[in-house]
Specification:
Blueprint (H helix, E strand, L loop, with lengths): L1 H31 L1 H9 L3 H27 L4 H14 L9 H10 L6 H23 L9 H23 L5 H4 L16 H29 L5 H17 L9 H14 L1 H33 L1
Helix pairs in contact: 1-11, 1-12, 3-4, 3-9, 3-12, 4-5, 4-12, 5-6, 6-7, 6-9, 6-10, 10-11, 11-12
């Protein structure tokens, strides 16, 4: 199967190239219009950066708590700390081409406790539940770059997608004939799903994580002195995130998210400011993930 391996390698290279090309285009927009945003950047102080990073870390913590509850089916104090460490240690894998690697990493970290396929199924369900929330937030406001009718249609489509993908995440049992046709990593789809009460708590924790993400972006906007409606800012942030997820081969949506955020924000704050904001947000969210991951590895090593 040399052709399949060559196709996989080509896809990974294409993912990196696509992401870097999109990122370069946004950076070029920011550079050519630097006179527009440079005064705003100069007013940013250390307090704004600390607040933004703290909110990004709070987002990762809330997602980690949701994963613990999802993976265990209940609060398990003796497993809470190890689960948070594993959540953080799997974060760097999302920066590999093909988002499946974060699930593979999570499965490997639990290999001494359960079958890797069961962890991978829980990871996929967790991601679907999270994407449903992301799509619901993205549906709260139409992108300013679209005509009103097209914007309203996009909102309805996002809302329908949110409902469908959330239902898929919590669907308790697939028919046996359909479950048998799933890929091998998803063979345990009908196993390990927590109770409805636990799923409700997981869902609320994920909403809290997205609230922290929006708060981090709002802190960044306030630091630059830019004013955007909260619904518009949250919708733009989540719509850009969905675009990054759709670009499966692009590691962590690199470049694609920035291009999406630029497209959403340019009509609101100007092209130069939108490009600068997109790049600044990438730095902030990556710094939050890198810090959480680094702390997880260091504390994991100390724990051992």
């Amino acid at each position: 199967m040399r052709w399949a391996e060559a196709l996989r390698r080509g896809g990974r290279a294409a993912g990196w190239l696509l992401g870097l090309a999109a990122l370069a285009l946004v950076a070029q927009q920011a550079w050519t219009r630097r006179a527009q945003w440079w005064p705003l950047w100069q007013r940013l102080d250390a307090g704004d950066l600390v607040l933004t990073l703290a909110a990004c870390l709070a987002m990762q913590l809330a997602f980690g708590l949701a994963w613990h509850l999802f993976a265990r089916g209940r609060w398990t104090p003796q497993q809470l700390y190890p689960d948070l460490l594993r959540w953080g240690q799997s974060l760097p894998a999302k920066y590999l081409p093909g988002k499946i690697w974060q699930g593979v990493a999570r499965s490997a970290l639990y290999a001494d406790e359960r079958r890797p396929t069961l962890t991978f199924v829980l990871f996929v369900r967790e991601q679907l539940l999270s994407l449903g929330i992301c799509a619901a937030i993205a549906a709260t406001a139409a992108p300013a770059a679209l005509p009103p009718r097209l914007g309203a249609a996009l909102q309805l489509a996002l809302l329908a997608f949110a409902v469908a993908i959330s239902a898929a995440a919590i669907w308790r049992r697939l028919p046996a004939a359909l479950a048998a046709r799933l890929p091998a990593p998803l063979a345990g789809w009908n196993q390990g799903l927590p109770s409805r009460a636990v799923l409700a708590r997981v869902w609320l924790l994920q909403w809290l994580a997205y609230a922290a993400m929006v708060a981090a972006f709002a802190a960044l906007l306030a630091g630059f002195g830019l004013r955007i409606g909260l619904a518009q800012a949250a919708s733009a942030l989540c719509l850009a995130g969905l675009a990054g997820v759709v670009a499966i081969l692009v590691p962590a949506g690199l470049g694609v998210r920035e291009a999406g955020l630029f497209w959403c924000l340019a009509p609101l704050v100007g092209a130069g400011n939108a490009a600068m904001l997109a790049l600044a947000w990438r730095l902030a969210i990556t710094a939050g993930e890198a810090t959480f991951a680094l702390l997880s590895f260091v504390m994991g090593a100390l724990r051992r």
